[in-house]
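Hey, can you fold this one?
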Amino acid sequence: MKKLFLKLLNSEFGQFIFNGAIIRLPEEMHIAEHSKILSVGQHQKKLLKILGNRLHLKTDQHTVAIEDNEYLINTTKKTYKNLSELIDLIKKNKFDLVLCGHYTNLLNNEELRVFISTIYQSINTEGIVIIWNFEQTNKNFFRWFLNFPFSLNNFTKNPNKRILEAAKETNVEFMTEVSVRPFLFPFIKRESVILGKPPK
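Sure. Predicted structure:
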């Protein structure tokens, strides 16, 4: 059952129902075919394929998929155990858009500050970072679901609060909570934050 569910989650269709809100990003965030995009998160290998097909992207896209506390870069087999090992890889590129779903609650406060600082440095002037996490729920089934397969070890009542505090501490210029919709499944609200660099 677990293998079947993970297979679904890692498929293009699975990404559509779990993270389908990205289909509205081109209109809402002015993302175009030449935009350079990075996706960071758990079970998100196929996330950019949906956006790429919709936009007919002409640029190379980059994915950092986190599985079992290891980081898989694009389609390579090379994995990394420590978040700090990713810093140079992320800094090599300047992105217009960074997507980060269901990941930041895996990080303790210091790891979150390192991540926010690094990812913020990876965006262009006027680039944006969109981060989303599950909202807290008291329903037993959904509480179980939050820990399978996403392993949200540091799940908090207000996930946006930690992100915004880390952003302030790392001198992010622009930050705000935002409503990103729709997520088709599971039926748990997501809390989302945008970080960015204002136009010069």
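The beta strands are 37-42, 62-67, 70-73, 79-80, 95-101, 123-134, 174-178, 190-196. Let me know if you want another pass with a different chain boundary.
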